[in-house]
């Protein structure tokens, strides 16, 4: 956990080094989420779109049978204002250990859910661990949007 936190704190992230080696499906809508948002199911496709559009990534790491993950899906990500922010200013990526084992093993995720904010150049600049209500995600998204505008 400490290594992971140090990596995030220092502003870099391995951004799943084996990008070319992982062949995940490109996109799918996230169940129990805003209909405005298309969630990428792999870091590859999401990162490519982030670079193309020059917008930050919201990386939501979830797993099955996790009540806090499910609560975020039904409470936070379904919120109309969050959906609109994601659709307008971000690339949404949803990862889980079953489909993205190689990518997630590289960062040693120890707690779910985990929400990361990544910049188009591949750096993780912020994160939130555990369930996050709408107001916390709204704040996280605002900080990320301001960061990209200052560049």
From TrEMBL:
Transmembrane segments: none annotated. InterPro entries: AGR/TXD, Thioredoxin-like_sf. Signal peptide: none annotated. The keyword Oxidoreductase does not apply. The keyword Signal applies. Keywords: Signal. This is Thioredoxin domain-containing protein.
């Amino acid at each position: 956990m400490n290594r992971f936190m140090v990596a995030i704190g220092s502003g870099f992230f391995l951004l799943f080094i084996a990008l070319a080696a992982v062949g995940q499906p490109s996109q799918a809508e996230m169940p129990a989420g805003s209909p405005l948002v298309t969630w990428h199911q792999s870091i590859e496709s999401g990162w490519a779109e982030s670079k193309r559009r020059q917008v930050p990534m919201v990386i939501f790491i979830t797993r099955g049978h996790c009540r806090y993950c499910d609560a975020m899906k039904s409470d936070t990500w379904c919120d109309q204002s969050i959906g609109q922010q994601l659709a307008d200013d971000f690339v949404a990526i949803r990862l889980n250990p079953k489909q993205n084992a190689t990518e997630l093993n590289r960062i040693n995720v120890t707690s779910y859910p985990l929400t990361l904010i990544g910049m188009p150049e591949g750096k993780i600049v912020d994160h939130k661990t555990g369930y996050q209500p709408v107001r916390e995600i709204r704040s996280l998204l605002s900080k990320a949007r301001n960061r990209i505008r200052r560049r």
